[in-house]
């Protein structure tokens, strides 16, 4: 009897007499033209060369003298052109300048010239100096052995027991001497002392400590 009920129930379901809910997989939403399924999560994204606008993918308009960037999400101007937001205009390079895409104006003055009111004017270089490629400062630098003083370069007077610093615009004292005003004075070593690593001061030998201008023996190291 139970088998008869089961068979009858199955026939009723198949005939539609008994309603039943069946899970049906939802069909994916239709992708707009020039789109693809998103690589991250659900949804979709526009293909390279297109930009999403509302529910559509609109082709990116590349102006003259420009090219699509590597990501396909925008455009960049060719070398020698500046981006105005909607177009690429040619860079007007003044005399004594050259193209430079890394700079805001698209050009940079040659060495020995400085930008002034959209032009490149010559830098006045004093004696014993040379031009430098710099946007700030004087535009020149003194030769080694000279130091800047206003708009001139003055020679550096190196005292006895001294030498030019590595930068070349100052001087230092030899080891065992210290700088005092415009001279190098010898470091006076007391007994039981030696020069410290700087070479401008002294420190006591092992087993001694400083006491004023002298090095006295430590009590702990004294013989019984």
UniProtKB/TrEMBL annotation:
| Signal sequence extent | 1-25
Q: Which UniProt keywords apply?
A: Signal
- Source domain of life is Bacteria
Protein name per the record:
MSP1 EGF domain 1
List the lineage, top down. Answer: Bacteria, Pseudomonadati, Pseudomonadota, Gammaproteobacteria, Steroidobacterales
């Amino acid at each position: 009897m139970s088998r008869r009920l089961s068979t009858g129930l199955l026939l009723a379901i198949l005939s539609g007499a008994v309603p039943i809910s069946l899970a049906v997989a939802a069909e994916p939403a239709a992708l707009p033209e020039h789109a693809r399924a998103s690589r991250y999560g659900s949804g979709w994204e526009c293909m390279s060369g297109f930009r999403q606008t509302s529910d559509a993918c609109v082709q990116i308009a590349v102006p003259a003298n420009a090219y699509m960037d590597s990501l396909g999400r925008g455009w960049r101007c060719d070398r020698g052109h500046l981006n105005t937001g909607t177009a690429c205009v040619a860079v007007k390079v003044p005399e004594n300048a050259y193209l430079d895409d890394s700079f805001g104006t698209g050009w940079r003055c040659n060495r020995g010239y400085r930008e002034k009111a959209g032009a490149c004017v010559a830098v006045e270089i004093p004696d014993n100096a040379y031009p430098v490629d710099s946007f700030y400062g004087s535009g020149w630098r003194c030769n080694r052995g000279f130091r800047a003083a206003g708009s001139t370069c003055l020679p550096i007077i190196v005292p006895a027991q001294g030498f030019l610093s590595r930068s070349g615009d100052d001087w230092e004292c030899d080891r065992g001497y210290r700088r005092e005003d415009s001279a190098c004075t010898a470091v006076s070593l007391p007994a039981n002392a030696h020069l410290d690593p700087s070479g401008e001061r002294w420190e006591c030998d092992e087993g001694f400590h400083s006491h004023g201008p002298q090095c006295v023996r430590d009590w702990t190291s004294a013989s019984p």
